[in-house]
What we know:
The structure holds two protein chains of two kinds.
Chain A: H1 2-19, H2 23-32, H3 35-51, E1 55-56, E2 59-60, H4 61-78, H5 83-93, H6 97-101, H7 106-135, H8 152-178, H9 180-183, H10 187-200, H11 214-220, H12 228-234, H13 240-271
Antiparallel strand pairs in A: 1-2
Helix pairs in contact in A: 1-7, 2-7, 3-4, 4-7, 4-8, 4-12, 5-8, 8-12, 8-13
Chain B: E1 4-17, H1 22-28, E2 33-47, E3 52-56, H2 63-70, E4 78-83, H3 93-96, E5 99-103, H4 115-125, H5 130-144, H6 159-171, E6 177-181, H7 189-206, E7 209-213, H8 217-223, E8 226-231, E9 234-240, H9 241-248, E10 251-258, E11 272-277, E12 280-286, H10 290-300, E13 303-309, H11 313-338, E14 345-348
Parallel strand pairs in B: 3-7, 3-8, 5-6, 6-7
Antiparallel strand pairs in B: 1-2, 1-4, 2-14, 8-9, 10-12, 10-13, 11-12
Amino acid sequence: MSARIATWxxxxxxxxxxxxxxxxxxxxxxxxxxxxxxxxxxxWYAIFEARGSSALxxxxxxxxxxxxxxxxxxxAFSSMPGLASGITRxxxxxxxxxxxxxxxxxLGFLFLSRFAHKIAYYSVAIGPFALVxxxxxxxxxxxxxxxxxHSPATAAAFxxxxxxxxxxxxxxxxxxxxxxxxxxxVSSLLFVYxxxxxxxxxxxxxxDMLPQPWRAIFDAIPLKYLAYYPAxxxxxxxxxxxxxxxxxxxFAWVVFFIGLSRFMxxxxxxxxxxxxx
Amino acid sequence: xxxxxxxxxxxxYRVYQKQEGLLASLRGLFRREYRDVHAVRGIDxxxxxxxxxxxxxxxxxxxxxxLKLLSGVISPSGGEARVMGHVPWKRENAYRRRFALVMGQxxxxxxxxxxxxxxxxxxxxxxxxxxxxxxxxxxxxGMLGIGNLxxxxxxxxSLGERMKMELTAALLHSPDVLFLxxxxxxxxxxxxxxxxxxxxxxxxxxxxxxxLTSHYMKDVAALCRRVVVIAKGRIEYNGSLNGIIDSFSGxxxxxxxxxxxxxxxGLERFGQIVEDQPPRAKLRVERSxxxxxxxxILAQYAVEDVVVEDPPLEEVIASLFTQVERxxxxxxxxxxxxxxxxxxxxxxx
Lengths: 277, 349
């Protein structure tokens, strides 16, 4: 076991070192993540101004801003830029061979690699994140008693849902990338996925704004756990009684996608032709 | 028991056949034609511990596919293989810790990091004890003359330096079997020679088993006693390097140095003249008639010096490949003549 931990640590350390090679690109990529949130805040400010009312579908303007800030956090955990397309490219170009001939698990290796990327990202982004949340602290003042700011149980559930959103995001995108064993090129599929992800994960608007039956449909698919759910938990939009069940469902989705990606990997290898020389 | 055993090993691929033009591309959206490519057709082979075997064959002969099968990168369509008692495509860690594959055209090191980081990762992945790791790394990098480049990012190394690093990475865990796929491709003669010398020394010293594919006959001649010629997915020859010339070349090359006033006129009676630069001439003579022909030449011409050589290996191999291509072409033609349901066009999807 200690040998395995030493291997994980080495993979993590090397991935971290690799991430820090291109300093300029890394810094720019990290800081630019904050730009979209500004446009979202201005957009909803304009909508509220035009409507002239203080609430929209149960959300005040302050809650909207707080929601977007929190989805920014959950997406920082769950988004996996370049993962699916990278897996497909490795299959197509033959780079995947190195994982097959060495005593290493490819999905485990990529998971640690992504974990390292996230650590590198958070360690730089934590400053700007703290500054943004400090400047926007006024938007978090009037949260209900069930919100994470008041309830340790909600704060713990928020943390758990964030961690699971990272694992879910990884294995969901890995499964998409592994379609490359069958299709070789999945860029169009990824485009469609990104489009759905943008709307159905709650990145665009809080999903509980939707009327039935859309709400029930969106609730039944796993994308909501990538952005909406952690934010809703933090804001106290999920009742304490429902937290445990919801987290279990999220966990079940995590297990499902781990199983699916493992299954696809094994099946894919059976039909893999060792492309790329 | 042999360290590598192949029995009826075969691998076929289904390859999309696209016709030229936009219309064909649009048609391809709904209906596609595929062709079965038989990359490896029922290979039987045994390799003993400590052998250095070369796989020779033209492009597309099935050499690399065989190495991919043996290293577990792909699964076969039929047949069996065991390497050190393991079935390669089961990809057991116990097997993967005992072999290495180096591909001349593929980089396995971390591109943006110094090679020493990749080596460190290999140490952990292959569970190499720290002292053994340091000793092996220093020994290998010392032999290859790359000890001073360990801290330089891989992307900034020359092709030759990179290949030496790849070899070092592959040998850190002291594999018992090494698969080399064109390790000297694209290298200059100095780097080629250095790698040849290294492989020769390492293999003799450690007695590991090496399977090598290369298009450079110098690699093969310098390193391998045994040669397996593969063409069209089949083994066409399996034996010593010299045996190829004996088996596939029916002639010898005779170089004659005449006395200065002697003309070479009439020499064509004895064989095909390859070169005629008086007072020197070179001709190709039937192997079976060599003694008789030489006696006749020496009786009729004033010859100062005679050299009898085998034809160049490259020439023999090239004619062997051509012969195999011709035979398989004729075979395919005969098959399509007798069987209209030719297997080459497998289906439409």
